[in-house]
Amino acid sequence: MNNAFYDMLYFLSCSAHGLVPERKDSDPKEIFKLAHRQGVGELVYDALKQVYTDDWLSELEVPVYYNVMQNTKKLYFIHKVFQQLDEAEIPYCLLKGETLSALYANPALRISSDIDLYIEPKLQSRAYKIFKKNGFEVERTTKFWHHDYCTHPAYGLVEVHRAFCDDLFDEVWFGNSLEPQEPYIRQKTEDGYAIQTMSATDGAIFVCFHLIKHFLSKGVGVRQILDTLLYFKHYKNEIDWERFSAVTKEVQYDTFIEYLKGIGIHYLQFNEEDFESYLYDEKICAEILEDCRLGGTFGYDAAERAKFYQLYTHRRFLAQNGTEKEYKKLMNKWTFPGIRLLLFGLPDILKQSYPYCKKHPILLPVAVVHRWIDFILQLMRKEAKVSTYLKYKEDVSDQESIQKRLDLIEEMKMI
Description:
Elements: H1 3-17, H2 28-37, H3 41-48, H4 55-59, H5 61-87, E1 93-95, H6 98-101, E2 115-118, H7 124-133, E3 137-139, E4 147-152, E5 156-161, H8 167-173, E6 185-188, E7 194-197, H9 200-217, H10 222-234, H11 241-250, H12 254-267, H13 282-295, H14 308-319, H15 324-344, H16 347-353, H17 356-359, H18 364-380, H19 400-411
């Protein structure tokens, strides 16, 4: 693996744990570049500045702390929205994000690009009135998508979930085990507000499976690994490890999770006593980290992995004694929303793209035809692909990098 990547992990873990870095023989520019690709630029910058005094590093101070300030303002603002949900007696559950930032030595440096919230479907219409009152534009998707979009012009995106995972992944990958089993808890924030989130054990399962979902889709970044390990450490005495182990073993992800803990101990400055158990194999752990390095945040840097989830789903489905016929039926059901989106679009999106039907909703059918014409023109100009809307039918298994991922996954007994 790239030595600079190991150095980046060192500075990242120093920042996460509140440790003073001691290494001074690294390449800080390359380290920060890698950190930015992993979505941990602010965290690594804070550690680098304690060791290096390079001019270029000083120049980063303003943009880094601007990002921190903007994120802090966003959180204070969203807390006011949460308070209004509380007053309206609309239960919600904050997923990931701020609940994980609180586990870092300096929570303000762990910045999320958006906010994920679960609200029961039957309560979402009431909740959206509150979001709209606070300046959000609400885009409702079809029932086949597991979340809607609430976008604020100053504070960005809030994804409001109607389910904790896509149906396909929940059924085939996670055995329908993501639904919380315990009441929500309150977690204090830095401004004194107590947000609603999952209990320690439900949270451990969700955070872990969310990481696995990304790993098995396009890829996972080191921040998600660090988030998960900090969660395990912080809630070590509160998590029901017997239940956690039973759930993760049932779906065959227990070995992978143990290797993540090994990575934490050997590369991210955790101690053995931070975890109930762990596994370490130099080759496997190095391959997991190399997969993270090549993929970047959520695998965005590895375009060839775009359809990997289909390949994995196919193999896992057959390994669970499913038949090819049953698999095709499942995937056709999964593909249908993409076909419908291609043909008709969503009303909210149509209203954005074609403002005349926002003013006159009766013109929505005209906007659909308008959309078809635009799409045909895009196809002719090679600016669009039908496959973007169709969620499978693309074979990627012959690529060397994809086969390496499959070999690693099989070695960890995840199929």
